[in-house]
Design a protein that fits this description.
heterotrimer, A alpha/beta (280), B alpha/beta (664), C mainly alpha (205), A: 280 residues, alpha/beta, Glutathione S-transferase Yfyf (Class Pi), Chain A, domain 2, Rossmann fold, 4-stranded parallel beta sheet, C: Fumarate Reductase Iron-sulfur Protein, Chain B, domain 2, 0% strand, globular
Chain lengths: 280, 664, 205
Amino acid sequence: MNLGYYPGCSLHGTSDDYQQSLKACFGALGVSLTELDDWICCGATAAHTLNRKLSIALPARNLALAARQGCDELVAPCSMCSMQLKKAQRAMAQDAALAEEMATIVEAKPGSTRVLNLIDVFERVGLETVKTAVKSPLKDLKVACYYGCLLTRPPEVVEFDDCEQPESMEKVVEALGATAVAWNYKTECCGAGMTMANEETVLELSHKILADAAAHGAQCIAVACPMCHVNLDMKQAAIEARYGTKFGMTIYYLCDLVGLALGLTPQALGINRHFAGRNA
Amino acid sequence: MSRIGVFVCWCGENIARTVDVNRVVDEVAKLPGVRCAVNYKYMCSDPGQTMIREKIAAEKLDGVVVASCSPHMHLKTFRKAAQTAGLNPYLLEVANIREQCSWVHPDREEATAKAIELIRLSVAKVKNNHALEPIKVPVTRRALVVGGGVAGIQAALDIADAGYEVVMVEREPSIGGKMAGLSETFPTLDCSQCILTPRMVDVGQHPRIKLYTYSEVEAVEGFVGNFEITIRQKARYVDITKCTGCGECSKACPLKKNKSEFDFGMGTRSAIYMPFPQAVPARPVIDKTVCAKLTRGKCGVCATKCAAGAINYEDKDKLVKEKVGAVVLATGYKLYSIGKQDGPVAGYGEYGYGKYKDVIDSLQFERLLSASGPTNGEVKRPSDGKTPKNVVFISCVGSRDNAKGLTYCSKICCMYTAKHTMLYKHKVHDGQAHVFYMDIRSAGKNYDEFVRRAIEQDGAKYYRGRVSKITEQDGKLIVRGADTLAGEPVTIEADLVVLAAAMRPADGVTELAQKLNVGCDQFGFLMESHPKLRPVETNTAGVYICGAAQAPKDIPESVAQASAAASKVQITLSSTELTREPEIAHIDERMCAACFRCYEACPYHAIEKAEVRSRKGELVKRTARVNAGLCMGCGTCVSVCPSKSADLEGFTEQETYAMIESLL
Amino acid sequence: MREYEIISVDLRVGNLMKTTMPGDPISLLESLSQTKFADCYQCGKCTAGCPRSAHMDKMPNQLVRLLQLGQVDAALGSDAIWQCVSCETCTTRCPKKVDCAAIMDALRQVSYERGMTSKQQTAVVLFQKAFLDSVRRNGRVNEVEMIAQYKIEGFAKMRRLDLLFDGAMLAPQLQMHHKLHLIGEKVRDRDLVRRIFARCMDGKK
């Protein structure tokens, strides 16, 4: 299987451990990725915060590249990227005048590539196939599946899973032999892009997530977004210091767990590059 | 040679100000066949009508044209006047020179010219009119009531007490509906069953009410005054004529842990069960989906215990036919399903209904409050049986929610939520009720005072805002809401959460409505004929609606509507014959080619496929035939008939062509 | 410390509108957010579910209420719009399908364009600006460049020394995990990126 690949700025930057992990994991599952040539930033929070047109134009440029490069399916492992791409697609589909305007602004026609998130890829491969490929089942591992905000919201835009009680990540985790714990903060915000400019927000919100996961018996948290990973992993020490609680919670990218179950080493998956946790 | 009289009305200034009525009279008097033409200030008044009658007699008129306001106003008045004078009323036509002339054309010349043309048209028509007699349709003087809740019960008792036989069909094994399961009712806090069960017994014992419980309407044929209803009596597996209601069977039944429908899942019942102690009829029924004998051929204990030998495992559904003249639909409501998607209506995943045991809906809470309920009237948490000290009530769950699919207000929830807080407080003195609301709708008699009592005397705390999410932590429910009046988010740790779910029409109502040609609105509620002036009638003659099946409403309104529907039924059944207007379609059977295009086209299913046979019984020909009882005179058959055998009395092809030709 | 304003009502006209913006700011905001403010029936579900509402000077439903009343400036100058984390919970749960998150975006955009952003939230505004500037220059975010611009501009505007040295220990830590990318990536067609920015943000063709 070959899929188009839109890494987004984080996966080439601070969160390139995520890229390392998913490339190793996909490789083991026979999924090859063709990176979108000359892709640009999707605009992330900054674009939709400061300028609506820009927030649609930047994804539109990427969608035009995908169309030109014959890419039917595009994996965007960062949930902000995947949401912004889908949002732009939907806005242009509903407003022909807007679509025309965007085509002028980005000097090409944005196509109708199907945008996939990380969990989508495992569903495309097929959970049965993943299960069969498992070499070292993650027995006795209790995982809290954390979706964050933008994988399931807004539901009309992302059209993925149930926005109140999602289960898609749990199904993958269970296919690996691990146990997905029931907990309350699956879709609560971690603080998003406030990491630098308003650190208090991240500390408060991410603390609640870590605390609830721990209270429900989780040994680790699985994520599918690089921003969530930074806030829960890189900031865990600051959270522990602020709130006086030791969590030691490992934050895994979902592809980390899949890779481990498939028999890949932590080093190959970049897990040694995470900051927090040695609980599991 | 025709002798037509033309009467031009001034309508005070309404016509005369714009139309030169004197000139009109002069002009139309010249029309061939017009015997006399007069004008008068108010034709509809007594002197005006007298003038018409006198002229009919004096001039021996054989046709009359009244040029006045719209026929919607006074056609009947003028036709009655003609009839009194001995002229067949259908030989009188109205030319509308007000709404279609003087009121819309300001220019005097133009309006006067048009008035003359309009009268010319009517004169041409009247020359071709036939005398018609009203049609009489026989009436079966019995009624059918579908639904045995409080509305159905009231309607049935009213009709039966008026002297007519009533057939009542109820889907559940007992009548009583939702009201039988309530604890106390607002605003009096009367015990619901105490006020309802005497009525239920009256229905069960009434000499003129034939009660079919555990039954449904399978098919409907016929028309007003002449309905033939096929009823499916579902197999109870208990012969209710032999059964004495002793209850030994349920006691003996080993399968006791089935969710009780009457308790809305809050309690359990056995496989053979009495719906509730005050059931009418007080007879048990076997749940064939769980009974061991019926599913696997094992057990059979109840039959051995039954001293009356009333258990019959071989029982089958029966189809029964009943003839009635009028039908009342009182099928009631169900609550919105909250947790999951139900057709086009989305669920509320954010409230955890179905996931958290201690999040329940309002009917389930009623069962907890009810003295005859699964907890004997003690408010207990479903999860651990403890008494909740903090109960959160959430209004508008499903109602007034465009995003989920139901935009309407369910009307009763503000009132019953206030009631719930009071009943809870009366039972748990140190408990605290919290209500999240958007508005308070308490518009009935003593209603607003009732809600204020809950707040001012019984200490209920009301927060104006919705709840966003409910999660569970350490056995408590964390309810995240808001109070917009103070501008604060409000989080409450509750022991129990009660959701005021929207009222929706009962399941299966759309299918039933289709059988009766009754419409439903986009939410499935039965459609009334006119929302203001005809709230209990439908667009199908002889079929009436009442209660929550028509729209969300409380008990006083349901009872009032039920009596209203009953009175309409009594009008329909008041004589052995129904009179219908004769302006209906007629098919010339000599010319009909039996292509049956009219049969396909008729929206009222009023055309029958008939056979013409000789005296020896040989088939002469097939023909279409109009059912005079059902035809509404729409004229669709006339327009599709290729052989011109279909025609509309009162608006025949000849009359219509005469009108057109008079203008050419 | 909140400032309490007395809202003057022009009783002759019955107009509560209070804004320094010319033209029809309400229509502009409704067009940017693709939503009608009149649809909101102030149920408060957005406020109830917002993870930041406890910290906001104006709750989400209050911001919409201000717009319903025409109090545009008060909404544009609020802290709340910059404390919002764009989690989309409000939009997802709104029973009237009011896109509250988009309203927040619209308020932020207009507030920024008109220079009306709340003083207390300057750090957040500067961060987003630094992010976009980096993308405008390179086509992709250059993290080190962006953070440097944020810190320098932040210090210049807010005179906050702590901002300069905040997270200084982060750099060596990132290096330890091989996450520090001193040299950012540049896309090839940077001219197109600049044209896109110019068309969207500077009103160029």
